[in-house]
Write a structure and sequence with these properties.
elongated; 21% strand
Length: 149
């Protein structure tokens, strides 16, 4: 995982442990004030939300504890983990920029692709000017590498 990805996990964990827990506590307190807990839907919903929050906190702690930070290989001339690569689809001429990150950090809509995804795998170890061939359900996509940063 990249250093930025680890920082984002830590920030989310801190937010959930502080703000998230406070919000849930307020919801539970308010729901308790409404009376009978056996038939109080708001109380049960707040307790469910609390359980989901605590589960997410445990998941984040585990991911942070087991994370291995890999330094970006910036300035290189080969596509590797952490780099940003600009590609041009040979068929459509459309250009796209992707940063290759861990699966946990991937967000295709934000231009962050998993290093282990089909596109990430096809781009690995390529140089500027090389063509990466990606198998898709509609056939092969040929992506020419325009820039690596």
């Amino acid at each position: 995982m990249t250093h930025e990805g680890l920082q984002a996990l830590r920030a989310e964990l801190e937010h959930l442990e502080t703000v998230g827990r406070q919000e849930i506590a307020k919801q539970i307190k308010t729901a308790r004030e409404w009376g009978d807990l056996k038939e109080n839907a708001e109380y049960h919903a707040a307790k469910d939300a609390q359980a989901h929050l605590e589960t997410r906190i445990l998941q984040l702690r585990e991911r942070i504890d087991n994370a291995t930070v890999v330094e970006k290989q910036e300035g290189g001339d080969v596509v590797a983990f952490g780099v940003t690569v600009e590609v041009e689809d040979e068929e459509s001429g459309r250009r796209s920029r992707y940063q290759l990150v861990s699966a946990a950090e991937a967000s295709p809509s934000d231009g962050r692709l998993s290093y282990d995804s089909p596109v990430g795998t096809a781009l690995r170890d390529k140089r500027k000017g090389d063509v990466a061939v990606v198998a898709t359900p509609r056939g092969e996509r040929r992506l020419r590498i325009v820039a690596i940063s």
